[in-house]
């Protein structure tokens, strides 16, 4: 396991294994932040990252349940590199329950919804975004690089789509699970003729399970001022 310079992570990742997959921050212009001022941004070679994961697994295989991928905004790495890291982390740590990273709105919005879905399915379950302010004039003054609306759009995309898409999905779920009247044959000892039974569709549970398997839970976008650069 190799590290370069000062290492930062969110408070909620205090007990996580930190994999330094990138060095520094690809934006690194925010006026209030000097976390990565001594580093020139670059991405480490994938093989070096995988070797670090293997070393960590050899030392603490059964003690690691969280992995934080640094440095400043590791989400900017190409998706194929991310997928290789996530696959190795999952294979190396049997108790792994969370992989997380810092992210900028810029880099989230560069990822397509399909790319983010692939990362979520592979194990990336939390990203930390720091909008710092809801005032665009302030964001411009501190050189944040994105407007507040862009931060909101980034969080929506990370969670699995825009608000309208999620509202439609919620309506579809309500419609699918709504009780319906069904006509069934009444047992012979209840007399002739059909009986009416009111209940949920028999296959609703199976449909819901299949839908969940096809669409895993979205990335959790943690929008916390102190947790993100």
Give the key terms.
two-stranded antiparallel ribbon; globular; iron-sulfur; alpha/beta; 229 residues; metal ion binding; 9 strands; 8 helices; 17% strand
Helices and strands, in order, run as: EEEHEHEHHEHHHEEHE
Strands of the widest sheet, in order across it, are 1-4-5-6-9
Write down how many β-strands occur, each being a DSSP E stretch of 2 or more residues: 9
- Classification by helices and strands: alpha/beta
Tell me the major beta sheet: 5 strands, parallel
Q: Strand portion, in percent?
A: 15-25%
End-to-end distance: 24 Å
| Average pLDDT metric | 79
Percent helix range: 25-40%
State the low-pLDDT regions, or none: 179-216
Oligomer: single chain
Global shape: globular
Rg result: 23 Å
Counting H and I runs of at least 4 residues, what is the number of helices? 8
Describe the structure.
There is one protein chain. The chain has 229 residues and is α/β, with parallel strands linked by helices. Helices cover 39% and strands 17% of the residues. It is built from 8 helices and 9 strands. It has helices spanning 46-60, 79-92, 105-110, 113-122, 136-141, 148-159, 163-177, 204-214, and strands at 17-20, 22-23, 42-43, 66-70, 98-102, 124-129, 180-185, 194-199, 220-223. The chain has a 5-stranded parallel β-sheet with strand order 1-4-5-6-9.
List the helices and strands and how they pair.
Blueprint: E1 17-20, E2 22-23, E3 42-43, H1 46-60, E4 66-70, H2 79-92, E5 98-102, H3 105-110, H4 113-122, E6 124-129, H5 136-141, H6 148-159, H7 163-177, E7 180-185, E8 194-199, H8 204-214, E9 220-223
Parallel strand pairs: 1-4, 4-5, 5-6, 6-9
Antiparallel strand pairs: 2-3, 7-8
Helix pairs in contact: 1-2, 2-4
Domain Elp3/MiaA/NifB-like radical SAM core: 15-216
Cofactor: [4Fe-4S] cluster
Pfam family, one: Radical_SAM
